[in-house]
């Protein structure tokens, strides 16, 4: 064997190369394939934040978690959960060391870009019934036409009873669609910019074309739609005002590519981190430090509302834990370490100019540590400190987790934010760790399975140390 030159040895010692997992570790690929079967089930059964909470609580209860009781004393290894208004959930495994010596927090969001029904959505035009929508989060509106859509949500009726609505998911269910123009008639539409190719008020969903069979009835197709909804769910038109109805892609999570290396599905931003964080929480048995895993709502519209992280519900939960342990919550926050578990934009070779290749994240190279997000001059970012980066990277390296670094696009091209800024507001050290995603915010996002699996491994390592 030829001896290495001084330059070769020096390069090995000083330079850093991010490995391609599939080339480096075949066993990891097989483990990722197996892990993502559960992940796909989570995506299929959790297409809204309420459904994600319901699915998560089922898993937590099966794993031995009990509802959190602020007046009960807990010991190391005890597992509890707390539900906030059916749209956010927190899980905790109590650690061996006091809360004031540290805790491990992992926060992901389970809302996703979608279409919501307007409060008064149903109308008839030219003998077709429609539902009017208002898009939620950052979507590219043209991507939502001509694809099968499903209706999910809840309706609170006048008497206070709550009805779950789900149409378009079961075999034999009808689906729904937003139409677009055929190329032959789209000359004027084609002059619009891409962002305005479809306008917000054009995102109207077809719900029917058959009329109620009685003469002299005004808007008979609308009436037929209401009749069918009433027969199935017992609701009337006024109930739409008391409802939360979401329109989501009717497609199922599925393998992508001949090698099945990707998962394709809607809502992977950020349910990919929600699922991996949840599984890491469940698989953590007797941690050194108490864990707090939270799956939260409203991140895509600024973490607003009382189920988003810009509210105080997480802080109040930490206060309850502190009171339970007889310590000051301010000390708990000051000594906590948090992963804001959110995705990053994977480098897309078809559109390379929007990335800076040396600092982009890549599909197939592991979970991504994002030191800062924001836009332009890091506006709106948390920007994790050197000390936090050292702690988190040391955990990854010790457990041989595959990780990489990433920025959210090239400078001045765009940007974005995560919940990290709201965590930092509580005087908690925090850094973003998640999964690189292709076609983010589209109705069919892609995540490499090895990256999903290594996000889980990263969170498990974080809870272990």
Explain this structure to me?
The strands form four sheets. A nine-stranded mixed beta sheet has the order 1-2-3-13-4-14-20-16-18. Strands 8-7-10-5-6-9 form a six-stranded antiparallel beta sheet, with helices on one face. A hairpin with a 5-residue loop joins β7 (149-156) and β8 (162-167). The chain has 465 residues and is an alpha/beta fold. It is 28% helix and 24% strand. α3 (26-45) packs across α11 (449-464), α4 packs parallel to α6 and α6 packs across α11.
pLDDT average, as an integer? 95
End-to-end separation in angstroms reads 40 Å
- Biggest sheet features: 9 strands, mixed
Strand order of the largest sheet: 1-2-3-13-4-14-20-16-18
SSE topology:
Elements: H1 6-14, H2 21-24, H3 26-45, H4 49-62, E1 66-67, E2 79-84, E3 88-93, E4 103-109, E5 114-125, E6 128-136, E7 149-156, E8 162-167, E9 204-208, H5 220-233, E10 243-249, E11 254-256, E12 262-265, H6 268-283, E13 290-296, H7 313-325, H8 329-334, E14 336-340, E15 344-345, E16 367-370, E17 374-375, H9 386-398, E18 403-405, E19 415-416, H10 420-424, E20 429-434, E21 436-438, E22 445-448, H11 449-464
Parallel strand pairs: 1-2, 4-13, 4-14, 14-20, 15-21, 16-18
Antiparallel strand pairs: 2-3, 3-13, 5-6, 5-10, 6-9, 7-8, 7-10, 11-12, 12-22, 16-20, 17-19, 21-22
Helix pairs in contact: 3-11, 4-6, 6-11
């Amino acid at each position: 064997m030829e001896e290495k030159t001084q330059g070769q040895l020096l390069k090995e010692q000083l330079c850093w190369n991010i490995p391609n997992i599939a080339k480096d570790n075949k066993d990891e690929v097989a483990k990722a394939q197996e892990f993502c079967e559960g992940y796909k089930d989570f995506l299929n059964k959790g297409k809204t934040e309420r459904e994600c909470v319901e699915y998560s609580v089922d898993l937590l209860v099966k794993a031995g978690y009990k509802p959190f009781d602020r007046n009960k004393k807990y010991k190391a290894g005890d597992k509890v959960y707390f539900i906030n208004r059916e749209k956010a959930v927190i899980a905790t495994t109590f650690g061996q060391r006091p809360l004031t010596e540290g805790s491990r927090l992992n926060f992901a969001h389970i809302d996703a870009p979608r279409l919501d029904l307007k409060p008064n959505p149903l109308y008839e035009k030219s003998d077709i019934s429609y539902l009017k929508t208002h898009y939620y989060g950052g979507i590219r509106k043209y991507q939502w036409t001509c694809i099968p859509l499903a209706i999910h949500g809840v309706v609170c009726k006048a008497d206070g009873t709550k009805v779950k609505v789900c149409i378009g998911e079961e075999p034999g269910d009808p689906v729904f669609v937003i139409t677009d123009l055929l190329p032959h008639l789209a000359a004027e539409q084609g002059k619009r910019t891409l962002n305005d190719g479809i306008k917000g008020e054009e995102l109207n969903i077809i719900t029917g074309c058959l009329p109620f069979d009685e003469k002299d009835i005004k808007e008979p197709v609308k009436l037929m739609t209401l009749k069918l909804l009433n027969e199935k769910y017992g609701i009337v038109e006024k109930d739409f005002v008391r409802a939360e109805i979401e329109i989501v892609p009717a497609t199922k999570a599925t393998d992508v590519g001949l090698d099945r290396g990707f998962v394709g599905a809607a809502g992977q931003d950020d349910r990919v981190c929600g699922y991996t964080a949840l599984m890491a929480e469940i698989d953590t048995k007797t941690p050194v430090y108490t864990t707090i895993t939270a799956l939260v709502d409203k991140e895509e519209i600024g973490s607003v509302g009382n189920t988003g992280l810009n509210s105080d519900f997480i802080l109040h939960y930490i206060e309850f834990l502190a009171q339970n342990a007889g310590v000051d919550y301010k000390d708990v926050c000051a000594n906590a370490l948090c992963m804001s578990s959110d995705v990053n934009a994977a480098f897309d070779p078809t559109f390379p100019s929007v990335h800076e290749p040396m600092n982009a994240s890549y599909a197939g190279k592991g979970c991504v540590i994002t030191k800062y997000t924001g836009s332009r001059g890091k506006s709106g970012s948390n920007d994790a400190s050197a000390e936090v980066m050292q702690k988190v990277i040391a955990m990854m390296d010790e457990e041989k987790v595959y990780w990489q670094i990433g920025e959210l696009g090239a400078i001045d091209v765009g940007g974005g934010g995560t919940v990290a800024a709201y965590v930092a507001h509580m005087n908690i050290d925090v850094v973003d760790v998640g999964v690189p995603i292709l076609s983010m915010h589209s109705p069919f996002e892609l995540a490499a399975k090895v990256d999903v699996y290594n996000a889980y491994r990263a969170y498990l390592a974080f809870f272990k140390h």
